[in-house]
Design brief:
By secondary structure, the chain is of the alpha/beta class. The protein contains 16 helices and 14 strands. The protein folds into three domains: 214 residues, Rossmann fold (3-Layer(aba) Sandwich); 93 residues, 3-Layer(aba) Sandwich (Rossmann fold), CATH 3.40.50.1100; 82 residues, ACT domain (Alpha-Beta Plaits, 2-Layer Sandwich), CATH 3.30.70.
Amino acid sequence: MTVSIGLEEIEAARGAVDAVGARTPVFESRLLSERTGASVWVKAENLQRTGSFKVRGVASKLASLGAGAEAGIVAASAGNHAQAVAFGARQAGVPCHVFMPSDAPITKVSATESYGATIELGGESVDDCLAMAVERAASTGEIFIHPFDDPAVIAGQGTVGLELVEQIRDLSLVIVPLGGGGLASGVAVALRACAPTVRIVAVQAAVCAPFAAALGVGSPDADGPPNSLADGIVVKRPGAITFPIVQSLVDDVVVVGEDDIAEAMVLLLERAKLVVEGAGAVGAAALLSGAVEAPARGTTALVLSGGNVDTNVLANAIRRHETNAGRRLVVLARLSDRPGHLARMLTVIGEAGGNLIEVDHLREGYHLHVRETGVQLVIETRGRQHARRVLDAVHDAGYDVRSVEQL
């Protein structure tokens, strides 16, 4: 399918977007600049209304419908598009019905409900929900708003590209998340019209990268529903409208793994004080992992597309980061099952500066003498060298203890 979307359509969408959304800030990331040796800035769409860029496309689509939206709107989404549609419907005063996957993040479901939408959970993926939404629209006469494969939606997302050109004078490279392709397509159209020399790279999660696979730079998706931190860009098939735009206007498509996404999320939180969901952090993950190289001249801009992350997911990512950085030490110890032995070992840990977080006794599934007990300890340390000193102190005191990393 070939649909013409140009600068004129994006400029026309701008009034509707400005009336509902925000002109999100851009600022330099010292962390990413130091790590890459280049000038790296971020565009914080995680600070956008409803927590993601999606409100732009919805505002554009609703404006194009005019009075046609009064029949009600229906949508399908893992969360960000759902929130944007629900918010837009409330602003327009029209009813809204949204289909979301059964495992959609709780925070995104709750936020969508808070805007007054009727939620229906079901299906293993966004694709399943899309089919249900289209079926409902056909039977009820409601207007279906596609999350990405719609010219008006793409035009709305393209306003991100217009703002980047206006906010960053020496723009050299733009890195944008890629799911269904609405954001990447809109940004690419805007940049090719306003700043044709700027390089554009789109990033997908490796576990679900249909664009990359179609373009010959990634592997086909595994069977079954993908499980990714970047749930907001887990879309199994490229859009009929977005694919040819990405293919012709985007310079490169790369993929990043789950570990790199998790690390990027935590580093953005820790160093930039920005809460960014996995889908929004894939650009940072691409830079930090070396999947994309920032140019020495000019400014690299990352689009942090959203910040709607489940707090449990973020907490798990933080714990994993602390463990990888050596600030969270998990150890298994074997010691005599007699009064006082555990207390003495914990005293050694405390005297070495370790802060005990958790203690669990393990009496099964672990080869122990009848008079021994196993203990799993979670210890907070100041880093890898300090963690090593804590372990050495426990060993020197005569205890059989190993970090989980050594097993």
